[in-house]
Amino acid sequence: MKGKGKLMTGLRRSSKVVRIKSAGRKKRRLKIRPVGILIVMAAVALLAWSLLPLGQRLEREEEVRELEQKVAALREENRVLREEIAHLKSDEYVEKLAREELGLVKEGESAYLVVPPPQAGEERSDESKPQKRERTLWQKFGDFLKNLFD
What pLDDT shows up at residue 70? Predict the structure, then answer.
């Protein structure tokens, strides 16, 4: 048992010695050398230079997204316009337009002009007579061509 006691006391003493030595050390101050400063500055510059294209890439991706949205909107507008063109070229629409704008009727049909009733106190002098409808420029041109070849 004596051997064990000496061994333990030896450990205690050695740990105290270590503590004393570590407490007596001075802290070393880090010396900054000009070469070290240049290396750090070069590393920072290299990092900044490598990140610059990343920012430009993000800007380009945002621009691409905006342009894709514009393209999608224009495609939708084109689709709507194509549908409208198809409708305007249809025979039904052309016939409707000819009836409403030009006053044309199919063979065997009669055209009627509906005149609103007079208001109280109004006189019907010229309104009672059917008015001659003014001919359009195309109708006048057609009449000119008919008279030219007849």
Answer: 98
Digit-coded pLDDT (tens) for 15-62:
455 455 555 566 777 777 888 889 999 999 988 888 888 888 899 999
- Please list, in sequence order, all residues whose beta carbon lies within 8 angstroms of the beta carbon of residue 115, skipping any fewer than 6 positions away: 127
Give whole-number Cα distances, 30 to 24, 27, 33, in Å: 19, 9, 9
Calculate ∠ Cα 49-54-57, nearest 5°. 135
Q: Token pair for residue 102?
A: 């030009």
Q: Where are the domains of the chain?
A: 58-104
Contact between 102 and 90 (Cβ < 8 Å): no
> Any residues with CB less than 8 A from the CB of 10 and at least 6 apart, and which?
none
